[in-house]
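Appendix B. Chain record.
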Amino acid sequence: MTTPLIRSATKRQFLISLGLDPDHGSTQETYWMLKDEATRAYESQLQGRGDLLRPEYANQEPPFAAAHFTAEAFSSVVRSIYQTACPSARRYYDRGRVAQGDNWVISWMLYHVCRYRDGRNIRAARARDFHADDDLDDNQGGEIAYNPD
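Structure tokens predicted for this chain:
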């Protein structure tokens, strides 16, 4: 297990928290693997599902932000991603287990998949470029330094 990150943490912070070097080529493959699993779950379980929205967002039009979904709907998808994960992804998901609450690794990724589809980052939603979904402050280095140990 690793120390949980908040969902709004940058991609760089996320990768470093998982013990990955954001500047290494193999990190991109790992990131895409995790993102692809979250994207498939989003598309099959959340996309366009107005019945899973919090009451105050009942009249909201898609696409939906992560905060629009009920906590139970979001948590259910997080659990589903873990249960259906490939062995390579599960290795990273296991680092995100917490005593109470959602797996923070899956939760972070699913939150960002929702974010890229809710209109805030059109470039990231459509691109297959590793850096297209970098947060604006990623190149500032964030508060976390890479430590491979």
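Further analysis of this model is presented in Appendix C.
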